[in-house]
């Protein structure tokens, strides 16, 4: 009986992993890949939907698209952000999620890549999330097995981030085992940068209170410099980027002792 239960858990984890990888799955493909019957896969999908981990479709399943994104469906700049390097961001996020240990406290910046990270936490439980981002909290609101702390502050509106005195005060009181930083630019000489000065202020504090700093950035961000410094390059431990980044672009980071993952 226990063996059957373990097999069921493993199969459902594989379904969630496949969904995150492909963006959508069909019952037919899952039956073929997992060697399970149609009835079994349907039961798995129904159970995962009840746990708010996916949304059933005719003949398969897709990731849950929270209702609070609905007002942005016709916003071209919002849609551009979501669509830009979408597959690369999913791969980066999956690699990042593998770095999270049970019981860890994880700090997350705002952004599309860090949002993908929380969508990869379907098989992770017993962790604590710290963020200054409203949508991260909302997407995790159904996860009773994950503690979520939000800094509070003024809602800036650009990708749901909270900034200002309340946010910085909260950030000064919080400490994390690992922080994943989404950035607008990362340059060996100029460091990690973002567009908004108030956001930089909050993230500097969170970064300084984190034991391990991991940059999650698609190849378009490598070598770029934005307006405001988050932290110097020497402070980061690892970078996760995509395979399109060139050897010469990452060589200076590697020379500094920073581990670079190309996924």
Describe, in plain words, how this protein is organized in 3D:
Residues 8-63 form the HTH deoR-type domain. This is GntR family transcriptional regulator. By secondary structure, the protein is of the alpha/beta class. 39% of the residues lie in helices and 21% in strands. The strands form 4 sheets. It has a 7-stranded parallel beta sheet. Strands 1-3-2 form a 3-stranded antiparallel beta sheet. Strand 2 (55-57) and strand 3 (60-62) form a beta hairpin. Helix 5 (86-97) crosses helix 6. The two termini are 38 Å apart. The mean pLDDT is 91.
Topology:
Layout: H1 2-22, E1 25-26, H2 27-34, H3 38-50, E2 55-57, E3 60-62, H4 76-83, H5 86-97, E4 105-108, H6 112-118, E5 128-131, H7 134-139, E6 147-150, E7 154-155, E8 162-163, H8 165-171, E9 176-181, E10 185-187, E11 191-194, H9 197-208, E12 210-216, E13 228-231, E14 238-241, H10 247-255, E15 259-262
Parallel strand pairs: 4-5, 4-9, 5-6, 9-12, 12-14, 14-15
Antiparallel strand pairs: 1-3, 2-3, 7-8, 10-11, 11-13
Helix pairs in contact: 5-6
Fraction in beta strands: 15-25%
Looking at the structure, what is the overall shape? Answer: globular
Order of helices and strands: HEHHEEHHEHEHEEEHEEEHEEEHE
- What is the number of domains? 2
């Amino acid at each position: 009986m226990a063996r059957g239960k373990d097999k069921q858990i493993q199969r459902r984890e594989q379904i969630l992993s496949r969904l995150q990888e492909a963006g959508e799955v069909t019952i037919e493909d899952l039956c073929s890949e997992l060697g399970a019957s149609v009835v079994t896969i349907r039961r798995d999908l129904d159970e995962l939907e009840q746990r708010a981990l996916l949304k059933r479709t005719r003949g398969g399943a897709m990731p849950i698209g929270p209702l609070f994104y609905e007002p942005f469906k016709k916003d071209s700049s919002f849609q551009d952000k979501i669509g830009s390097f979408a597959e690369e961001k999913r791969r980066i996020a999956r690699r990042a999620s593998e770095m999270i240990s049970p019981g860890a406290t994880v700090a997350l910046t705002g952004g599309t890549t860090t949002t993908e990270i929380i969508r990869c936490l379907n098989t992770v439980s017993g962790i604590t999330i710290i963020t200054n981002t409203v949508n991260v909290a909302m997407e995790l609101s159904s996860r009773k097995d994950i503690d979520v702390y939000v800094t509070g502050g003024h809602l800036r509106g650009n990708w749901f981030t909270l900034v200002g005195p309340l946010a910085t005060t909260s950030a000064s009181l919080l400490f994390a085992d690992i922080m994943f930083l989404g950035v607008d630019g990362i340059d060996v000489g100029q460091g990690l940068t973002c567009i908004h000065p108030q956001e930089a202020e909050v993230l500097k504090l969170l970064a300084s209170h984190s034991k391990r700093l991991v940059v999650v950035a698609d190849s378009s961000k490598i070598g770029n410099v934005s307006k405001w410094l988050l932290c110097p390059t020497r402070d980061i431990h690892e970078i996760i980027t995509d395979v399109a980044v060139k050897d010469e672009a990452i060589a200076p980071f590697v020379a500094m002792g920073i581990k670079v993952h190309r996924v």
